[in-house]
Amino acid sequence: MTLPALAACITLGILPLVWLPALPNLWSIWGIIILGCLLACLRWQMPRYIGFTLLAFAWGILAAMQAIWPAQHLPGAHRQVEIVITETDNMTRHQGQIVRLNGERLFPSTGITLYGQYLPESVCTGQRWAMTVRVRAVHGQLNEGGFDSQRYAFASHQPLNGRIIDAQLQDNRCSWRAEYLQSLTRTLDSRQWQHVILALGMGERSTLASNVKDILRQTGTAHLMAISGLHIALSAMLGWFIVRGVQFFFSGYGINWRLPLLTGLAFAVCYAWLTGLQPPAFRTAISLSVWALLRLSGRLWSPWQVWICCVGMILFTDPLAALSYSLWLSAFAVAALLFWYQWLPVPIKPRSWLGQAAVNLLHLQAGMMLLLLPIQLSIFHGISLSSLVANIVAIPLVTFVTVPIILLGMVLHLTGPAFMQEACWYLADQSLAGLFAFLSWLPPGWLNVDTRWQGVAWLPWLLLIAARFRLWRSVPAVCLACLTALAFPLWHTERAGGWSVHMLDVGQGLAMVVERNGKAILYDTGIGWPGGDSGQQLIAPWLRWHALQPEGIILSHEHLDHRGGLDSLMKVWPRLWVRSPLGWAGHAPCFRGEKWQWQGLTFTAHWPLRGTQTQGNNRSCVVKVDDGRYSMLLTGDVEAQGEMALLSRYWTHLQSTLVQVPHHGSNTSSSLPFVQRVGGQAALASASRYNAWRLPSSKVIKRYSEQGYQWFDTPHQGQITVSFTSRGWEIHSLRDQLLPRWYHQWFGVPSDNG
């Protein structure tokens, strides 16, 4: 079996980790291994391929089981651990590797993220701490089209979160990288673009200012700020040129072509280590090592063979990298470049080298912009219209000017003269000033794109294939059918008459979307926190991705976990009307007796009373949404006192098909008379798993269950969608039904939410 074929088997075998709803048990894995070994020993080619693919599949499953073991077994009690710090913000967030558990060596070590507390002494990467920690399994919010934090955590080998109970410093020595980074940070302290220099040179992107990140996003140049193949390849080229320069003085007998290759590889690996072996840098180092070994083999390998060997080795080394979006973005980008240059070479050959360089760069950027559309829309939900112009200037400047100067400055920072260091940092700072002045001059180019365009994004690939083989002449019907199938979501409309209610997973808050005919009304807007809110980071992207046009907001009451995203949503859609019981400027009233129609649905407000002096939870605007057959009661945070007042006056109007559980499932709400009077068939609660109040209350869950309700909550189900049609209604939970994945499961102690 050839190496590319083996790499393809490894890739195909590990790829199912992305989609598996659950991991097979150990006995099944043994069966897969035995079958794979038997098939791999056969003489026929196809059975051998299948055998190696099965063995790779078992290898990936075992890696996944090893990754979830800490999340399944360590939560639920205080643990005595020894942790080596791998990353810190020098305040209250630290990442580390647990190397000892209860005094015993833990192999392999497992990653943990510690939140919310200062350590008793100054902290830096490389230190070793003895800690007592309360371990929590990773658990993230889950919404359609949203950021998948659990998948990211497993891809990053960080399956645990933790709270520090006690900590003692065992070894205060910082790593060499940490000391170097601290020294470099002090040297660059006076530079305007200090944080960008550190991002380009050391991969420290966490300190980039929000306005800088926004400029990079708007112009499609964020990829230049990551330690990626570009930076590692430049360091490899630096090592290669140094050795070739020295070999210039050797005689022909003293020159070995392998020495520059191996020196460049050593430079690349050392630089990847210096930048903290971040996943993109680690994967680039592996790819360069594979490429170097293939070169040393003495055979001529095609670009596609090198590509599949690199992908296969990355996945064999780290099967959980299959969950990494950045891996597939990088692999897809390289594949797109190979496809682009092989199928559509540079069509123009200018006479001057400068003109040739300009044409090559334009050709490269056009290919990247067109062929990366599918994966870019899938991951980022949008495209930058100014990326072509921005990258034509930014890529040469960063690649051939800024990064080489920064690398030289980093080398000189170790032993070089101070004036040469200052010259390097001055030139790097000025080049970045010019770059960001140009990027800021460009008009904002980011275009949010909804899910309907996912199929259309593949058109550049298909058009290129059709043009190359002249398929539009030989099989026009097939071309037309493909075009129609890809564009189907754009002109297809949902069947009229149906409507949906979505309870978004916003953590310890509430945000619900009532949807019909492509329009939406929101009931509450999630939580807010310093520097962000649910409206900006979750609700607005969710609405755009689903091509929904919001028309209004019903705000239940004034607490921040319900109105946190209001201002952000009003900035995006300033014409939204708002109803609330708060009496704020611009808010329409939401009191008992208010009734209005929207898209054929009837909205009726049942609480509070007009002129009430009640504040807080019991002033929540209770609204019933009704289509004449099915209904849903939206209750906000109303508590038992408000429920009793509702029952004493308006109990005949409260019966509903479904109910949003009041106050996140707190035992101060959902009194038995209220639950009985509503008489619903399902109850939906919004909360975060690890909340300080341990909501939803087990008593409340039991109360609803005993009255015949089906129980759903966002910690267990993620986003919850209720669809109403003329045939009935049904509930779809994202974690269990729409997107079941092994890495989305509820890990750790089943009852642990504190």
Automatic annotation (TrEMBL):
Membrane-spanning residues: 26-42, 49-69, 222-243, 255-274, 304-321, 327-346, 358-383, 389-412, 424-442, 471-491
UniProt cross-references to SMART domains, sorted A to Z: Lactamase_B
Membrane-related topology note: Multi-pass membrane protein
Domain Metallo-beta-lactamase: 508-689
UniProt keyword annotation of Magnesium present: no
Any one Pfam family match given in the protein's UniProt record, by short name: Lactamase_B
InterPro entries from the UniProt entry: ComA-like_MBL, ComEC_N, Competence_ComEC/Rec2, Competence_DNA_uptake, DUF4131, Metallo-B-lactamas, RibonucZ/Hydroxyglut_hydro
Subcellular locations according to the entry: Cell membrane
This protein's UniProt keywords: Cell membrane, Membrane, Transmembrane, Transmembrane helix
Alphabetized PANTHER family for the sequence: DNA INTERNALIZATION/COMPETENCE PROTEIN COMEC/REC2, RECOMBINATION PROTEIN 2
Protein name per its UniProtKB record: ComEC family protein
Native source species: Kosakonia calanthes
